[in-house]
Amino acid sequence: MLPPRPAKKPLTHSLHGESRPDDYHWLKTQGKTDPEVLGYLEAENAYLDAVMSPLRETQRAIYEELLSHVQEEDDQPPVPDGDWEYFTRTEEGRAHPLFLRRPRGGGEAQLLLDLNALKEREGHANVWVYVTRPSPDGRFWASLLDTTGQEVWELRVLDTATGELAEAPLSGVSGWTLDWGADGRTLFYATEDATQRPARIWRHTLGQPQTADEELWHEADPTFRAWAHVAENGTTLLLGGSANMADEVAALDTRDPAARPQVLLPRERGVEVQLTDGGDHWLALTNQGGASEFRLVRLPKRQGVTWADAQDVLPHDPQRYLTGMHLFAGHLLVAGREGGLTRLWVLPRTAQGYGPARRVEFPEASYTVRIGANHVYDTATARILYTSLTRPTEHLDLDLNTLETRLVKATPVPNYDPADYVAEQVWVDAQDGERVPVSLVRRRDTALPAPTLLYGYGSYGASMDPTFSLSRLPLLGRGWVWAVAHVRGGAELGRRWYDAGRLAHKKNTFTDFIAAGEGLRAAGVAGDLVAMGRSAGGLLMGAVVNLRPDLWKAAFVGVPFVDVLSTMLDDSIPLTTGEYDEWGNPNDPQAYATMREYSPYDNLRPAVSPHLFVSTGLNDPRVAYWEPAKYVARLRDLRQPGSGVLVLKTNLGAGHGGSSSRYDALNEVAEEFAFALAAVEGRLDAGGQ
Prior knowledge:
- The protein is of the alpha+beta class.
- The protein folds into two domains: 320 residues, Alpha/Beta hydrolase fold, catalytic domain (Rossmann fold), CATH 3.40.50; 248 residues, Prolyl oligopeptidase, N-terminal domain (Methylamine Dehydrogenase, Chain H, 7 Propeller), CATH 2.130.10.
- Helices cover 19% and strands 35% of the residues.
- The longest helix has 20 residues.
């Protein structure tokens, strides 16, 4: 079967004295419901099916192997909140979780939501619930539901006394904000503008129509996002607007259903802040005052407070990057990074303020630890999550006085023995001499060099920390190495690492990843290299395939941000205006020139390309379907004889994260791994491409 070739409809973009021909821009402008667009995407899916047809048995075997490592019948550890503890349950053969609770003192579990039943009852192809919140008195349980993958949410409130919805669902709600007032009858939520930017914060009283809700915050600046959440003490709603490099924070009393927000810290370009309510003071995590790796300060609760009033709780340390905090009645738990690893520190609260910080120690040399779900304020125990490349996630209770941990539950992974695997970290030299860490995991009996899957992301300061994933096991069991390149643009080595991989420095992300591949080859670790990245990691894939097509046997280009200039020049679509501080604003000639130099779609040239598996979701609001569709169409025009197989998979009923079913998700992994194995083993037929 020959691959589809969509029509060329010549169009030229002109800006800053440059013309950019774009024969496939119509895949965007005609829209995702257009028959010609859908016809092309469906033809690509049919071609993918033809390519994968000889590999379906391998895919099925990998799927069964993945499923053998899943504890299908399982409860997540309960999280206390008020008089109840809340948890999710999965049941064998059922694709979606159940949400339950039981009294903290013991008793029967109460079913709050069965997503499987909801999906069947309402006839949805997919269902997602990411955020749930019980009212302070436990009477009501609020959740945000998405049924398309487009990340437009519906707010539903369950009356736990009757088992029925307390009112008609609220529609068109943002997925980033949901909290309760202290009275248990008032809800705070957000709505978005036409670009799906959270723009307004609302107060809703149960039983009243959505049209009567009170607007608390309107974020008019298109580069800022509105947000709100209740502080740990439950009495203060913090809300405001945030951009990549600035925050504005206001507060109101959740005990007063008529309270209006008062601005505490107005926005200031370059000053970032996380704030919480310390009782008689505000506690702020900030980079203000040149604290590039952030410091922790307290501010007095008074009108007209400024940064001149700040007193250090944890002063700035260039070797310690502070990233988060959770306040309890008697302690402060702080998260950050030190020496390339995630860390936790505990500070006791004293009559004078805060005592010295003590670091929580763990036995492994390389691990990932983070603050878990904590909804009880007056407690000396904090829930934390701990994992490593070989150790499935453990839910631990941390004693905030002794710093000892108690295992609540280790994630069960059937048919897995961590003693069979070895993890390590190596360092490679980047193009400019910087040292880049790379995490590796493999079976102990794997002979090197071995086929290696190299994963990367490198944007937004998001760190790809060493964590366990059962989805890697089929490749590791077949003698592969799994590697994660901690490239600049992430924050593995602190805020400086992030700043060195964005804006004018973005190319460091790509050259770091190439250096990781070359370094693993030179060290005798990697044989054939397969690259993988999603979203902004898909941008990374497009860039490194353009720069070094010869280095990769195959690449997985997932929901990829590859048409950088067209996207960032369109301020009518999601994410554009809020990401000028990440990529630059191409309306500025200098920023345009920087982005033009690496934008994967705009830098495609005739070349012998590796095998490429490109994927997207038709309803994806973050990276629209047309970016990978245009990318694949142009690639088909430019690939030279000797190139590998090129496929495009479009999930026609989902968005950025793929299918909601856990079984579908496993099958999607199995499909990609079957493609990867065939690529390395020479079993992919590139005939006709």
